[in-house]
Amino acid sequence: MPHPDESSIPALAIVGVGLIGGSIGLAAKKAGFARRVLGAGRQQKSLDDALAHGCIDEAFLDVKEAVRQANFVVFCTPVDRIIEQVVGLAPLCDSGTLFTDAGSTKSAIVAGIEGNLPPGVSFVGSHPLAGSEKRGPKFADGALFHERLTVVTPTPRTDPAAVEQVVAFWRRLGSRVRIMTPAEHDRALAMTSHLPHLLASALAGVLPESLRELTASGFRDTTRIASGEPELWTGIFLQNRPAVLEALDLLLVRLNAMRTAILAEDRTALDDLLTQAKRTRDALGS
Amino acid sequence: MPHPDESSIPALAIVGVGLIGGSIGLAAKKAGFARRVLGAGRQQKSLDDALAHGCIDEAFLDVKEAVRQANFVVFCTPVDRIIEQVVGLAPLCDSGTLFTDAGSTKSAIVAGIEGNLPPGVSFVGSHPLAGSEKRGPKFADGALFHERLTVVTPTPRTDPAAVEQVVAFWRRLGSRVRIMTPAEHDRALAMTSHLPHLLASALAGVLPESLRELTASGFRDTTRIASGEPELWTGIFLQNRPAVLEALDLLLVRLNAMRTAILAEDRTALDDLLTQAKRTRDALGS
């Protein structure tokens, strides 16, 4: 039988109760390992929605108060606010408090936090690969992390016991967990998440209004994520700048190869490029 | 009350009983205006599936025989085969037979057919903006055209009575209809359909196998259509070469603007680009 201290969290605080934060609350309450789930946010409306949807037990407009009462804190705020929040709030906490996040970039966040926390307070970077272009706790889903992957990004300086607890946390929400370095995470996600967003946005951006009626499911699928919040994505692109540019340049090489094949009416080259891409896409499943 | 000759088709032939052809058959049988639905194809398996799914009443491996018996023929074959098929088969038909197609490009097809048909046989180009990356009559859906748009592309040389009948045909399948010139269609679809396919394929094509596990719904949505059949898309890209290249070059300008904003850490420019694209995407609905 697991020790109670290992198997339950007296007070879990979620800072930022949007779709991800709300889903963490729902999943934690369903799994039953958090005795209290505290939600902190800047908008009363989001907190009210999160309470109404059963994502959290208690709502706090004062994030300091929520964090002060918590043993485990998850930051689900925009990536460019996480460093400041964690470093600013950590001194208010009891020794033994554990911090993690759900940000889509990791190198800048981990580097900005490690070494800047008081003794006894730990931070471990996390990124659950789940989400949606939708926004707000009313779209929260207690099964959002089920069978999905969460990347946890310790460094040689991260407390191994804290890493274990954070890994266990995501597993209890139903997620699989993979350990990567922050830099590995950022290069991988530049390709699998940030580049798709860039492309979807570019494509939506060049559609003239007169052609909207002529779009079908292909255009809609390909551009769906362009509905994500611009300020969140500006933060992600800028925090992961080198890896995003590297991924974009790789894509531009490929687009140029396709362009050249079309221009030269090179049926074989074009067919080869399309066939290899189809093979990769088919392997991902629906 | 409509004249029986106007409101029913004694024998409708569908050449190519894949997802589109099969869906046309199902929709026509549901609407009840075709007394017989004949399906022609080169693969016995597809014909068997189409019969089993109720898409067609009779199956023909010999396309000539199906077309000879038909009053109205829809070609749902790859774009680079339609000209040859229509021009080759038209001399077998009775005067008054009407041909249309469902191809994703129109200029080359219409130009290759008009002027090359025997007297009394008409062709009107069509393109129903519906479909899927899936393939085969087992995915056919009698409601596929419901509330969707079909573009019909007459030219000054097209018989106006034939245009009316083709427009009525698509409407009876549940589709809205818009008349455009072949060139207008091709420029529009280069942007709304061919360019998304090019991008989805390029993105799927640069994903290394080691990163497949790190993809989530964003990557999957953005690349979904890359599962389309390469040979179909090679034909489309080459038949609509100038318009596809023009659309791609527009996109490259936009991607380059995003690249420059990221490189320069120009938060305002990046946010403006993302915001304008989000507005467009939000306007399309889900």
Describe the structure.
2 copies of one chain form a homodimer. Chain A has 12 helices and 8 strands. Chain A is of the alpha/beta class and 286 residues long. An 8-stranded mixed beta sheet of chain A has the order 3-2-1-4-5-6-7-8, sandwiched between helices. In chain A, strand 7, helix 7 and strand 8 form a beta-alpha-beta unit. At the A-B interface, helix 8, helix 9, helix 10, helix 11 and helix 12 of A face helix 8, helix 9, helix 10, helix 11 and helix 12 of B.
- Count of DSSP-assigned helices of chain A: 12
C-alpha-based Rg of chain A, rounded: 21 Å
Spatial strand arrangement across the major sheet of chain A = 3-2-1-4-5-6-7-8
What is the straight-line distance between the termini of chain A?
A: 39 Å
Q: What is the largest interface, and how many residues per chain?
A: A-B, 85 and 85 residues
Say how many strands of chain A there are: 8
Oligomer: homodimer
Strand content of chain A: 5-15%
Percent of residues in helices of chain A comes to: 40-55%
Report the uncertain regions of chain A.
Answer: 1-5
The SSE order of chain A reads HEHEHEHEHEHEEHEHHHHH
- Largest sheet entry of chain A: 8 strands, mixed
